[in-house]
Amino acid sequence: PIGLDPVVLRHAEVLHQIAVETPLDRKIVDRVAGAWEPIGPLRRSAKEFMEATPWCDWIATEGDGEGRRIAYWRTLSKYAFALAPPAMIKGEARPTGPFWDMDSHRVLETLALGTIPILWHGVSAAAWEG
């Protein structure tokens, strides 16, 4: 499980249970879901895109951190596609460090749920560009 953060690993069984609750043939295929903190220009532009696009659904969850994450998984697992914008940060704990995507683990969570992440700009999407 390289790339999964410790919180996800603590709830791996819950993630698996949620994943099997919605068979692939019952997923919503004509809409795109997503949710993230709109921090930074890439995340803000992705949220603006979702808000302006009628076939996008913003997932709003309530509760504490872990409860919100599990509620997000339950909702996201019903969708075939999810928008996945990065949270670009400077790596190596230095202001001049290379950019990297701190949300790559969210892409792996999405895949574990049987949902296809649509990568939005940034480092995660670079491999698919050009």
Describe the structure.
- This protein has 130 residues and is an alpha/beta fold.
- The chain contains six helices and six strands; from the N terminus they run H-H-E-H-E-H-E-E-E-H-E-H.
- The protein has helices at 6-10, 12-21, 40-52, 65-76, 104-112, 122-126, and strands at 32-34, 56-58, 81-84, 88-90, 99-101, 116-119.
- The protein has a two-stranded parallel sheet with strand order 1-2.
- A hairpin with an 8-residue loop joins strand 4 (88-90) and strand 5 (99-101).
- The radius of gyration is 15 Å and the shape is globular.
- The two termini are 29 Å apart.
Low-confidence stretches: none
Shape: globular
Q: In DSSP terms, counting alpha (H) and pi (I) runs of 4 or more, how many helices?
A: 6
Helix and strand succession?
HHEHEHEEEHEH
- The total of beta strands comes to 6
The percent range for helix content is 40-55%
Beta-strand percent range: 15-25%
Largest sheet: 2 strands, parallel
The chain-level mean pLDDT equals: 79
The radius of gyration computed from the alpha-carbon positions, rounded to a whole number of angstroms, is 15 Å
- Strand-pairing-aware structural class: alpha/beta
Strand order across the largest sheet: 1-2
Distance between the termini: 29 Å
